[in-house]
Amino acid sequence: MKPFVAIIFCFLVLGVDSQRWFQFMKEAGQGTRDMWRAYTDMREANWKNSDKYFHARGNYDAAQRGPGGAWAAKVISDAREGFKRITGRGIEDSRADQFANEWGRSGKDPNFFRPPGLPSKY
Fold it and tell me: Most exposed of 10, 14, 86, 110 (fewest Cβ within 10 Å)?
């Protein structure tokens, strides 16, 4: 049922034509994986002041997949930051995270937010 709803959503709301819906969904899935990879890397690195870098990197990588990836990155980022605002945790931090999210989605270099000394693995 969920894939059917997603397909209808793409057709009606996003205006994805019948030729591109499969590509859009593929990009969205890949973008979701990119966001997850950035999150797990952030947790693994556990590096001070690296949060904005991983936000920007996840959004950048997802957006590079195409419109579906950019859409997935926006939905995931907005949901995460929306949850923070609802719970009242770190509104200023949430704004800064959204800035980093938009920076990455717009195609700007996420290394702008890279903290000094972060291992090159990331």
Answer: 86
> Is residue 6 predicted with pLDDT exceeding 80?
no
Tokens 């890279």: give the residue. Answer: 114
pLDDT of 22 reads 87
In the chain, alpha helices (H): 2-9, 21-45, 51-63, 67-87, 91-105
Distance of CA 115 to the CA centre of its chain: 19
Question: Angle at the Cα of 95 (from 48 to 59), degrees rounded to 5?
Answer: 70
Q: For residues 110 and 53, is the Cβ–Cβ distance under 8 A?
A: yes
Q: Identify the three-state secondary structure at position 111.
A: helix
Cα separation, 117 vs 86, whole angstroms: 34
**What's CA 88's distance to the chain center, in Å?**
21
**Which of 35-44, 51-60, 77-86, 113-122 is least confident?**
77-86
